[in-house]
Please model this.
Amino acid sequence: MNIQWYPGHMTKARRMMQEDMKLIDLVIELVDARIPYSSRNPDIDALAGGKSRVLLLNKADLADEKKNQLWAQYYREKGFFVLEMNSKTRNGMKRLGELVREACREKIERDRRRGIKNRPIRAMVAGIPNVGKSTFINTFVGRSLTKTGNRPGVTKGKQWIRVSKELELLDTPGILWPKFEDEAVGQRLAYIGSINDQILPTQELAYQLILFLQKEYPQALKERYQIAEDVDAVNVLEEICKRRGCYKKGMEPDHDKAAGLLLDEFRGGQLGKMTLEIPAESF
Model:
């Protein structure tokens, strides 16, 4: 299952980010805690250069808590300032303010020595589509300033947002990179909804997710759908059809509907807290 998706507007967004880098002090990058490697755009490393970096493991409440800690430690060792968070709540937001100041300590000290006062830290908020950037900004600022949605591509252009006299944020559109060298990366991005569902082979994607669940989280299907652990993967969608009433006219099982339901419930956390990769597997 080879998944590629790189709409033209992402090329424009990448060029815009490259230009804006000269204006900012810090990059705040959001990744999905369920796939902390696959949801990191490698282009951001190239664009950011020597800028200070804060990495937010967003949607940490949907991920495996022990694996969150593994990833946080991994990225700290890579030189990032890391914070686990859920962008829909204010938990962790105070700590983020402290982390931003810590990451920009040298810049703040340099301004002080030069006699520059009250110059705010300018931070770019970056990440792939549908990772929660707009929700994070609205929660961090405490009011609705950007459009949000559970689909990729909601944010189309850049927007400067003043958080306080000490901090300004630059919101940017979510961008992927032109080609996924590893097929599994594209697959994991599709699982979490960062690729437009309309171009995806939904049943095949659901089947691959079922194989993963049966291997790594075997209780999930049993607890959510009352499907025995020994049911063959190819028959799981059939069982979901029966238990959730996914039928077409004439009582024909609607496998597409069942596949969409499985993906939606995985993305919403109804199947439990899960992480799809760990550092040793990803590098």
User: Anything to note?
Assistant: The beta strands are 26-32, 52-58, 81-84, 121-126, 159-164, 167-171. Residues 147-156 have pLDDT under 50 and may be disordered.
